[in-house]
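Supplementary Note 3. Input sequence used for the single-chain structure prediction.
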Amino acid sequence: MNEEAIEHCSPVLRQAQHLVVFTGAGVSAESGIPTFRDALTGLWALHDPMDLATPAAFERDPALVWGWYESRRLQLQGKEPNPAHHALANLASQVPRLTLITQNVDDLHERAGSTGVIHLHGDLQSPRCSVCAAPYAAAAELDLATTAQADGGRMTPPHCSQCNSPIRPGVVWFGESLPEHALQSAFEAAGRCDLLLSVGTSGVVQPAALIPDVAAQQGAYVIHINPEPNHGQYPEATHIQGRAGQILPELVARAFG
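The predicted structure, written as discrete structure tokens, is reproduced below.
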């Protein structure tokens, strides 16, 4: 079935003039990055990520939340882009225009060579002030080697050089709005593309899940790639069940090889 779907989708990809790629946690999971559905381990085994990823949690215990996110940054240092990331970076040179939108907060797309990535849910590599939102210029100098190793994972966050408030992770927490500029750019691209690839996303996290619908409503062809069976999300899309790291390289090779 996948072979037939890939064969059917290859000419669609080859003829695309403006391709939008919309990626979710399934892509990063293939590089060994846990999703929010996965139970925490090690120092964090007693915590629920849903309880750590909120503004209230940071206000209540900033050292605990900062320590957890810094442990995630440390974990990310040991991960590498997988074949799906590399296939998408390669694809950018094959089509006239490609817009890459991701729900992931890691930098694996960039490390694979993709540029101009729209991060809907923020970026672990871009902490900012919790009050004035000024970027934390010294982010690259954080001592990741000692992250989450003392005091049950707690780590006192640095302070903003402009207003002396605590620095917070550069991600979107539960209960917060997505970055307005990123969301607007994503919807505009979806509304103008002729092909959208939805890769490794469950299609249930709003408002990001509306992006493929916007593309379909404007007449774009939508291809949904996911290892999980389709449960009714994106009913108008062509569905290819499988791992992104296997399907994407094959689809790109078939279309342009």
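The radius of gyration is 19 Å. Residues 108 and 142 are 19 Å apart (CA to CA).
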